[in-house]
Amino acid sequence: MKLIVGLGNPGPAYAATRHNVGFWVIDRLARTLRISVDKAKWKGLVGEGCVDGQKVLLLKPQTYMNASGESVAEAVRFHKLNPEAILVIYDDMDLPLGTLRVRMKGSDGGHRGLRSIIAHLGTQEIPRIRIGIGRPAPGVSVTDHVLSPFAPEEREAAEAAAVRAAEAAAAWITEPIDRVMNRFNR
User: Fold this and answer.
1) Which terminal residue of the chain, N or C, has fewer Cβ atoms less than 10 Å from its own Cβ?
2) Radius of gyration (C-alpha) of the chain in whole angstroms
3) Predicted confidence (pLDDT) per residue in 150-171, tens digit
4) Active site residue ranges
5) ∠ Cα 46 184 155 (to 5°)
6) What's residue 9's pLDDT?
7) CATH number of the domain where residue 45 is located
8) CA–CA gap between residue 47 and residue 43 (Å, rounded)
């Protein structure tokens, strides 16, 4: 079984924000895989399907970003998953807008959602896809930056990155992560 988690904040007020690109990816992946992510479970919204004989769970934690680990840990414990069977997708200010980075493991890099997941699972050995949202403009706080929508001139690059991230996540279901990294880390 594989668990793919997209990070974001629940509710319509956050839907278009930079911090919610992980949710955008889950929504695109769900459409591609024909999985409905609409069941309330594990403090999140969950969908379940099968891809090439592989059971797949899609999860959008509804705990708010900083407590994402609560939802992920419940799903992981319920299914007794190893960390390598989990893929976390989230926004990253340290990457230029629209850039993707697929990684096998690593620190939280200052991302509080990932920090929560690492703390709840007790390991940094969690595969992830980071989606670049760019740095805040001078004088703009980090909080205001991540909780703001993309500017109209940024929207196309952000949406294209979400599409590529969904493609990478779909590839991860059936391919080794090093092959996914080689293909999508350009």
Assistant:
1) C
2) 15
3) 999 999 999 999 999 999 999 9
4) 19
5) 70
6) 96
7) 3.40.50.1470
8) 13
With vertex at residue 180, the alpha carbon angle to CA 88 and CA 74, rounded to the nearest 5 degrees, is 20
Q: Is 90 annotated as a binding residue?
A: no
Report how far residue 33's alpha carbon sits from residue 143's, in angstroms, rounded to the nearest whole number. Answer: 33
Q: What is the mean pLDDT of the chain?
A: 95
pLDDT, residue 186, reads 75
- The parent domain of residue 65 ranges over 2-184
Report the number of distinct structural domains present in the chain.
1
Do the annotations mark residue 64 as ligand-binding? yes
Query: Among candidates 56, 15, 63, 65, which has minimal Cα distance to 37?
Result: 56
Show the tokens assigned to 161: 């990155």
* Helices 152-174 and 21-33, packing angle to 10 deg: 50
Residue entry with tokens 């807008």: 97
Phi, psi of 80 (to 5 degrees): 55, 50
Instruction: Count the residues in the chain.
Output: 186
Residues in the chain with pLDDT values less than 50: none
